[in-house]
Amino acid sequence: MPNEIERKFLLANDDWKSEVTRSVVLKQGYLNSTKERTVRVRISGEQAYLTIKGPVTGVTRAEYEYEIPVSDGLALINLCEQPLIEKTRYFVPLGDHLWEIDVFTGANEGLTVAEIELTAEREAFIRPAWLGREVSDDVRYYNSSLIHRPFTSW
Q1: Which of 30, 49, 64, 142 is catalytic?
Q2: Residue 26's closest CA among 78, 75, 87?
């Protein structure tokens, strides 16, 4: 069973912007967004994905992701709960890891979050100076929670 081990942080400043190597606009929606499982449809540039995630234990959860035809992704996203998650993802390599910085728009305008995927929960990683408070265990910052309680309503 494939697992995702992900830690999530707020940002202390915008210094990360000078380290970006690429970016992509994402639109995603949830066909199911319960704590037991999420089923997500994501349009990422010219690609589309269907992702199923299990419940979170610590910062680990089962994750199954499949590329699907973009036409299917566009049709499925119309079936998703509203509002959709809209964001630009910026990629910042640092050491052996790749930071993903999500700058949200739409109903979550004003929210910016940095994520790092690890191979073990206690894996060491470089903490850049632009990294702020960790929010990995704060469910408000889960994308599947942001559709029910968008950041602009906090």
Answers
A1: 30
A2: 87
